[in-house]
Specification:
- It catalyses: 3'-dephospho-CoA + ATP = ADP + CoA + H(+).
- By secondary structure, the protein is of the alpha/beta class.
- It folds into two domains: about 130 residues, Rossmann fold (3-Layer(aba) Sandwich); about 70 residues, no CATH class.
- The protein is about 55% helix and about 10% strand.
- The protein has nine helices and five strands, in the order E-H-E-H-H-H-H-E-E-H-H-H-E-H.
- The chain has a five-stranded parallel beta sheet with strand order 2-3-1-4-5, sandwiched between helices.
């Protein structure tokens, strides 16, 4: 984590494995009036039809990753990059610097006593150094797989490859300042968010 700078926003990096419920938790913070910046949303915006990033992806992977409407064929790209680590790293090398730049730009103008920055791959990312605290949304791997299969209709083999491509549960927990166990009821998760909200407001005020 970075050294606290009073001139910069107090940033909470929210992370967790795929299908752990990061968006749900981020929404709960947003309901409390906390600015939320989601790097998945930024990533989607960066590859809109006609964007420079989408053109570079097309050059890297060919027309097979372009949908009939000219947008990104996410299913085709996912199949490629989660079957070949080298291809995945090429894609990350293109997108991750762009995502970080836009995230910091939005953070600088978002305001708030503190901000939630949703970064799915925070454990693997140098963006971790820009966060004041790290909040991990944690679920058991079996539940993560079950949710991923239900949400994205992946076949089990592909879903397991996606999970394996990310930092392990243990690696994420090792970097956590705070944890939300998201394997219970929605009400319990909401209560935990409320507790953390009060804590983060106090910490931000003490800077």
């Amino acid at each position: 984590m970075r050294k606290l700078e009073n001139t910069e926003p107090f940033r909470i990096g929210l992370t967790g494995g795929i299908a752990s419920g990061k968006s749900l938790i981020a929404n709960y913070f947003e309901e409390l009036g906390v600015p939320v910046i989601d790097t998945d949303v930024i990533a989607r915006e960066l590859v809109e039809p006609g964007s420079p990033a989408l053109n570079e992806i097309r050059q890297m992977f060919g027309d097979r990753v372009i949908a009939v409407d000219g947008g990104l064929n996410r299913a085709a790209l996912r199949t490629i990059v989660f079957a070949d680590e080298g291809e995945r790293r090429k894609l990350e090398g293109l997108l991750h610097p762009l995502i970080r730049e836009e995230t910091m730009r939005q953070s600088a103008s978002a305001g708030g006593r503190y901000q939630i920055i949703v970064v799915p791959l925070l454990a693997e990312s140098p963006m971790r150094e820009s966060m004041d605290r790290i909040l991990v949304v944690d679920v058991p791997k079996a539940l993560q797989l079950e949710r991923l299969l239900a949400r994205d209709a992946e076949n089990k083999a592909q879903a397991e490859r996606i999970i394996a491509s990310q930092a392990s549960r243990e690696e994420r927990l090792a970097i956590a300042d705070d944890v939300i166990n998201n394997d219970g009821s929605l009400e319990l998760a909401r209560q935990r968010v409320a507790e953390l909200h009060r804590r983060y407001e106090r910490l931000a005020a003490l800077r």
